[in-house]
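Sequence of Acetone carboxylase (Kribbella antibiotica).
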Amino acid sequence: MDMPEICSSKGCNTAATWAVLWNNPKIHTPDRRKTWLACDEHKATLSDFLDRRGFLRDVEPFTAATS
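Predicted 3D structure, token representation.
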């Protein structure tokens, strides 16, 4: 049985519904994207945290890959 991908917010065990895409321009190439997963409750706080630092690139719906 596959475990659902969970939110990246500390202490949250809720299934992720959003992919928060970011990069740090000081250390990543412009096309590189790192991903934090977010539930509906933490989408805004994770996005805002990255946006304040100039790291946020995009937020898109997350669907777990199936094998």
